[in-house]
Amino acid sequence: MSLIERSVRVGARDIRVATTGSGPELVLLHGGGPGASGVANWTRNIPALARHFSLVIPDLPGYGRSSKHLDHDDPFGDLAAAIGGLLDALDIPRAHLVGNSYGGGAALRLALDRPDRVDRMVLNGPGGIGTTRALPTRGLNQLLDYYGGEGPSREKLATFIRESPVADASAITDEVIDGRYRDSLDPQVRADPPLRRPSGRTAPRTIWRMDLTRDARLATCTVPTLVIWGTLDKVNRPSGAPRLAHTMPDCSAYLAAGVGHWVQGAAPDLFNRLAIDFLGAGA
């Protein structure tokens, strides 16, 4: 199925977006690892989902071919505003959301800020759920430190991808790593990484804002939600799944046995079936 790609002006930024498929609008929000982008994140899901939904697949601000500026004092809030602005620009009043990791946190923040814009959402190992508040995981530390120290390297990226997101490292080819590494070297991204460890005077406030479980609105957010989490996730701890299910009024959780952080890539048939059924295609 062919993709139509273009840049859409949203405020002061250009958002690169790919569209395909037919049916109710579904926005796919990618994770925040080095070199991440929209279409590459969902390559094993797009054909199945496009048979049921009109897909909107953006490169989030700071990634891919979108503008690189991101508000580091409130990244989830900034991403949520950008997604809402993209929906406005595309004349989409309301849509389903599927978010992976960093994109999952952005989807949840949009549901808290503008529940009128979100129909249903699927969160795949979302960030911002407070499971790494006291002691960050090895995978999260690798992600946050990628641009620190001696700077980015292919070895750093390969270690993060092969150790953290998947249970079966053989599923990640050299071509995938080469592409992600090449994209991570964009001069604008190196100068201002979109995902980094909060520091300086605003760090406490940023950390607070990025922990969405501290937001009192979570307990009253009635957007129907399905949380999918791999039991072997080494980036965001799977304990976030029952935490959300117990807090949100209309939230179900599915723990995928033997799968790591990228359920959508490591177990695409399972992920696609769960997402399609939950989002109500044909219902």
Q: Can you tell me the number of structural domains?
A: 1
Structural class: alpha/beta
Total DSSP E strands:
8
Q: Helix-strand pattern, N to C?
A: EEEHHEHEHEHHHHHEHEHH
Strand order of the largest sheet: 1-2-4-3-5-6-7-8
Could you name the ranges where pLDDT drops below 50 across 5 or more consecutive residues?
A: none
CATH architecture identity: 3-Layer(aba) Sandwich
CATH class: Alpha Beta
Topology summary:
Elements lengths: L3 E7 L2 E9 L3 E5 L8 H4 L4 H5 L3 E5 L16 H15 L5 E6 L1 H12 L4 E7 L13 H7 L9 H10 L10 H11 L2 H5 L11 H8 L14 E6 L9 H8 L3 E6 L6 H4 L1 H12 L4
Helix pairs in contact: 3-4, 6-7
Brief overview, please?
The protein has 283 residues and is of the alpha/beta class. 36% of the residues lie in helices and 18% in strands. Strands 1-2-4-3-5-6-7-8 form an eight-stranded mixed β-sheet, sandwiched between helices.
Which terms summarize this structure?
283 residues, alpha/beta, Rossmann fold, 8-stranded mixed sheet, 8 strands, globular
Provide structural commentary.
It is a single chain. The chain has 283 residues and is of the alpha/beta class. The protein has one domain (4-279): Rossmann fold. Helices cover 36% and strands 18% of the residues. The chain contains 12 helices and 8 strands. It has helices spanning 38-41, 46-50, 75-89, 102-113, 138-144, 154-163, 174-184, 187-191, 203-210, 240-247, 263-266, 268-279, and strands spanning 4-10, 13-21, 25-29, 54-58, 95-100, 118-124, 225-230, 251-256. It has an 8-stranded mixed sheet, sandwiched between helices. Helix 4 links the parallel strand 5 and strand 6 (118-124). The chain is globular. The model has no long low-confidence stretch (mean pLDDT 90).
